[in-house]
Amino acid sequence: MEQTNRLLSFGLPIEPTVTMSPVNSQKSPRPASLTDLFVSFTLLALQGFGGALAVAQRELVENKRWMTPEEFAEEWAVAQILPGPNVVNLAVIVGGRHFGLPGALAALAGMLAVPLGVLLLLALCYSRYAAYPGVSGALRGMSAVAAGLIAATAFKTFGAIKTHPLGMHACVALGAISFVCVALLRLPLAYILIGLGAFACIFTYRKLGR
User: Fold this and answer.
1) Cα 194 to Cα 53: distance, rounded to the nearest angstrom
2) What is the DSSP letter of 12?
3) What DSSP designation does 112 have?
4) What residues contact residue 73 under an 8 Å CB cut-off, 6+ apart?
5) Rounded CA gap, 89 and 112, in Å?
6) How far apart are CA 115 and CA 46, in angstroms?
């Protein structure tokens, strides 16, 4: 204050003080509460007929932006390795990341509670009308749609491989070898996970170490 009065007495102009705000202080989007987690995963599960991979990618990455494409690809890989349904594992991972154990339980309940009731109703209807040709034809059509959704999601997440430490060529080669082992050679999945999975993890670790 005294310094300001002295400047005024000499007729010197006083520049206003500018308070600098931190750059990029906004946090990335995240679930607002446990209720938000429960409702979000309930709606996700209700859309996931024939597999919720495509719906999970669209909701978590594109709509809610809780995950980046790279994070989704990494967490989905972990969810596939763990025992149990892949999307349920992913829900537990996302819930646990934001709210710990309560978040994991809320996301798990959202994936299972309401869809379980819908599944029981559909099972009752299917037991009565399974013999109708239209029902079996509809199920075959749904399986084709589900396969198309999974393929489309694979193309969407393909861009995340560009930032992988192994590089594009190595990742594509590992994917092609996995496809040959599963689809053509009919090798047990456990052998592929232990063999190729361990090799990829060790190779990535060495790349990161450099």
Assistant:
1) 23
2) -
3) H
4) 157, 160, 161
5) 12
6) 6
